């Protein structure tokens, strides 16, 4: 037995028998929280209670007439219909995105708004729906409420429509955690690097929200608004097409070029989600527009800088014959990238856009503190004295100086660091480390598009379930890289953005009486203890930045798709790096 229709209170038997008997428990049915649409029998008393249909901790009773043959249900037919104006169609569902600049609501108010539209807070049934929804969070200003809640039973998450089973979840790391026992509603978190992970949050928070409903055959087809040519799908200012006929990377690029586009470049996590979910949909591996231009640097074929990467486990593997990049279509590696043989035959994704790559940025005009060397828009410091430090210790010192271990994005930047590393007592830690996907990522969260491994490196065999011993990366004096044990004592290289300071008249001001992190200070600190070093560095930095009247700022970041890409350590590194000299 269940409610017949989401909005109604009339119960019906699933076999359409008339309801001639009921045996509700005291106070039932109560449709608690508006999400109890199915009926459960108490195993001791036999009376009935309405519950959320997604509840999994219950048995079930079947009934059939003696001698009756079971007839399998007919195959599910495609769901016909369309969406109301302002809603976005994906497969058999319509989605509405709310919560722009001056529009937010707590979970209950957001749900009520959806119900006023004959919908519910979004129900997400699989990875592809999650990708589609997260791709349109781009213009929302807050995390977005969806319909998952455990407000009835702690830890027993169910969809607020009371009907849909929980077939899929996409929790962020260490979620759901019910922080302080107050988090019972679910929101999708999103930013330029990661979009679509779920977090349990306080239901009283005012955030963005997403509604969903089934598409309806009663809604007429919308007027044709697709700005793209036939066969392409629109997303913001871009048009995409998946071609399943296998081609080599070069042949695929030629085919895309003939249609006025290129193999797809991917700029942010939202675009990654759209291409992986709405375009690829798990069908097959497909070429995208990223290719290694020499032995070390990956570049987009359409000239866009590499703002974002989404490498799969152990990728890029940097094998000599693997110079082109494809996107995985299978479920396990869904949407992740793999460098592979350019001559392999694969499906491919074309992209046509009205946007042009940003102009190459001029060299930075900021300032660096004493002891730091300027290059491009950054300041660099290399420590390489007799006393070495582990990778975590090295990163800690860089962070105390308001920076991070260096990330390297071009051959030119690499050559600069080789020249800056004058003492060459140790190899030098850089910011590359193994990530949770068993691949490599920069500690400052910048994209990984430049590689400079030494021969036969990285050589630490590492597979899911292993405890790897060489999870951090050091740079040899000649600039080549090696994976090594993170506790080894080495020198290190730091990087931070240049300082842009103004006095009351708008002139450039840089502190001149504040020494920065120094080799001498670190050596002394190693003798008397890391705590004292930390205190000294913090004090020096305090004096460096507490000069009266000084205001610190950084240059504005380039914009794409009508929205600023807000990256704390953002750079524009992959114009081959030559413009930074």
Structure in words:
The protein has 581 residues and is an alpha+beta fold. The protein has 4 domains: 1-63, Mannose-Binding Protein A, subunit A (Mannose-Binding Protein A, Chain A); 88-214, Roll (Mannose-Binding Protein A, Chain A); 236-353, Mannose-Binding Protein A, subunit A (Mannose-Binding Protein A, Chain A, Roll), CATH 3.10.100; 373-560, Mannose-Binding Protein A, Chain A, CATH 3.10.100.10. The protein has 8 helices and 32 strands. Strands 5, 6, 7, 8, 9, 10, 11 and 12 form an 8-stranded mixed sheet that branches. A hairpin with a 2-residue loop joins strand 5 (88-90) and strand 6 (93-98).
Question: What is the secondary structure topology, with strand pairs?
Answer:
Elements: E1 2-3, E2 11-12, E3 38-41, E4 48-51, E5 88-90, E6 93-98, H1 107-116, E7 120-121, H2 127-135, E8 144-149, E9 158-159, E10 185-190, E11 195-201, E12 208-214, E13 233-235, E14 238-247, H3 249-258, E15 262-263, H4 269-280, E16 286-292, E17 298-300, E18 322-327, E19 337-341, E20 346-353, E21 373-375, E22 378-383, H5 391-400, E23 404-405, H6 411-420, E24 428-434, E25 440-442, E26 472-475, E27 481-484, E28 491-497, E29 500-502, H7 519-528, H8 530-545, E30 551-553, E31 559-560, E32 563-564
Parallel strand pairs: 8-12, 16-20, 24-28
Antiparallel strand pairs: 1-2, 3-4, 5-6, 6-12, 7-12, 8-9, 8-10, 10-11, 13-14, 14-20, 15-20, 16-17, 16-18, 18-19, 21-22, 22-28, 23-28, 24-25, 24-26, 26-27, 29-30, 31-32
Helix pairs in contact: 2-4, 7-8
